[in-house]
Input
Amino acid sequence: MATTTAAMRAPATPIAARPSQSLWSNAWWKLRHDRLTIFAFCVLVVFALLSAAAPLFSEYVFHYRFEQQDLLHTYEKPQLANLAYLLGSDEIGRSQVVRLLYGGQVSLAVGFVAALMNLTVGVTIGLTAGYFRGFIDDAVTFVITTLNGIPQLYLLLIIAALWKPGTFTLIVVIGLLNWTGITLFVRGQTFALREREFVTAARTIGARDRRIMFRHILPNVLPLIFVLAAIDIGAIILLESALSFLGLGIVPPTPSWGNMLTNAVSYFVRAWWLVVSPGVMIFLTVLCLYLIGDGLRDALDPRLKTH
Amino acid sequence: MRNFIARRLLYAVPTLIGISIITFAIARLSPGDPIRLFTFGIQDFTQDDYNRLLHAYGLDKPLPFQYVDWITNALRGKFGDSLIYHRDAFVMLLERLPNTLQLASAALLLQLVIGVPLGVIAALRRGSWVDGLIRVFGVAGHAIPAFWLGLVLIIIFAVNLRLLPSIGMLTVGHDQLDIVDRLRHLILPAFVLSLTGIANYCRILRTETLDVLAQDFVRTAHAKGLRERTVVFVHALRNALIPVVTALGGILAALVGGALVIEQVFSWPGVGQFTFQAAIAKDYPIVQASVMFTSTLLVISYLLRDLAYAIVDPRVKVS
Output
C-alpha cells in the first residue's frame, strides 16, 4: 500500500527526479541537501582558516603577538575599543583572542594528525585480523581487550607523566593508543565482506591476499571510515583538551584550547571570559565534527535510509 | 549457561595478565634508578652497598622473575608503600574508593533516570520539536568538554548565585552525616560526570525504539487492537531496553575515566584525583595499585555486562 502511494506521487518529488548513480555521487547528492552538515562543515573550515591565518591576524588585525604581555592591561574585559582585547586579556595582559587563534592551530593539528595515525594503524590491523582470522585475530583481540581494560585516561595519564609532555608526545601517544575502536569496526566489516562472492571471484582469478584486502575489501569499508574519522578527530580534540587542562598535554607557552583553561581556573572569579571562550571553541569544533560524522553516516550508509 | 560463565571468566585471565604486564612495565620504563633515587646524597654510599640493596630488593634478577615477584605480591594487594606518604599504597587507594563509587553511582543513576526516558520520548514523538531538541542534546552532550562544563557550572551556581558549594564532598567542620550537605556537594560533579552517558543513552534508545516500533510484531500488536500504551510499554519497550545493558560496559569505562578529570575540577577526594596527584609526583606504587585496581573493576564490569546481555537477550548464543 505504502509503496503504491509512493510510486504514484513519485514524479512530483525531487528524490525520484535524480538519476541513479554510484555510491559516492549518491552520497554527494544527499550531502548537498543536508543543510546542517554543510553548515557544520563551513564552520569547521572557517575555524581552520582562522587558525591557519593566526600569524596574519596577530600582525595586521590585532597588532599583538600571542606571547606578548602587558602588565598594565591585565584582566581587561572583552571590548571593542581595543581589538586585541576583543575577548579580554588574561592575568599577565596577553590577548585572549590571539591566543585562541594560535591555540586552534595546535588543537586542530593534534586532532587531525593523531586521527590519521589512528586510522592508518586501526584500518591496517583491522583488515589483517579480519581477513586472516585465526591466530592473528586472536592476538589482535587480546591486545584490544587488554588496552580497553585499562581506563583510557589512566593509561594516557601515566604515559604522559612518564615521558616529557609536549605536542609531539601527545600526538604519538594518542595516535598509537586510540585505534582500538576503529580496528574493531573494520575487523567486523572484513569478517562479513571476506565471505562475499566478489572476494571468492578475485581469489579464483589468482589475486593475492594483499590485493584482495586493499583493492577489494577496503573500498567497501572506506565510506564508513570517513564517518569514524570525523568522530575520532572530535574525540581526540576533547581528549587533548582534558590532558592539556591537567597539565599533561600541550605545555605553555604554546597555547592550546585545553591549557588556556588550566590558567583560567585560578582566575575565574575575576575573569570569567578566560574560561568561556576556549571551552566554547572546543565545544563548537567538536560539535561540528560530530554533526559532519552523523551527516556522512546518513549519506554513506545505504541501510540507514529509513531514519 | 554455566559453561558460558566459565568461558568468560577464563577469557578475563589473559586480559588481566596483559594489564598487569603493562602496569609492571610502567615502573620499569620510568626514567631514573630507584636505588640511586633513595640513596641520593648519602656520603659513604659505595658500589658494594648499591649491589647489596639491588639484591635485597630483588632488582638484580632478570625481568621475568621480577615480574613474578611483583605479581604475586600484587595479587595479595601488596603494591608497596607510597613513596610520599610512606603508607601502604593499596590501603590508601581503598580509603578513597567509597568517594569515587558514590560519585560514579550517582552519575550512573542520573544517566539511567534521565537518558533512557528522553530517548524513548524522542522516538515516540518522532519529528516533533521535542524530538529535535533531544537529538540536538544527544550530539551536544557528547561534544561538550565535561571538565569545562564543570567550571562554567561552578561559576554560575557557586560563584555568582551562591547556591551550591564548588569543591569537596562536604563542608569542613560540618556534621559528617548531614545528608543534605553531602547531596549539595554531589549534585554538580555527578551531573557533569553523567552528561556524556545521558547523551549516549538518548541516542541509543531513540534509534533502538524506532527500530523496534517499525518491526512486524509491533504492527501485529496494533492490528490485534491493543491499546497504544500496551503496545509501547509491554511489547516495544521490553525489546528496546536491551541496549541499556549492552551500552553499560562502555559507559562504566567512560565513568571511571571521566571521574579522573571531574574529581580534579571539583576537588573530589576520590581514586581519580589521588591517582592523578600520584602520577604527577611519580609515586609509582600508588599509580600501579590504582591502574591494576580500576582495570580489574573494569574487566569485571565488562564480564557482568556480557552475562547480563546473555540473560536479557535470549538470541545471544550461550555456546
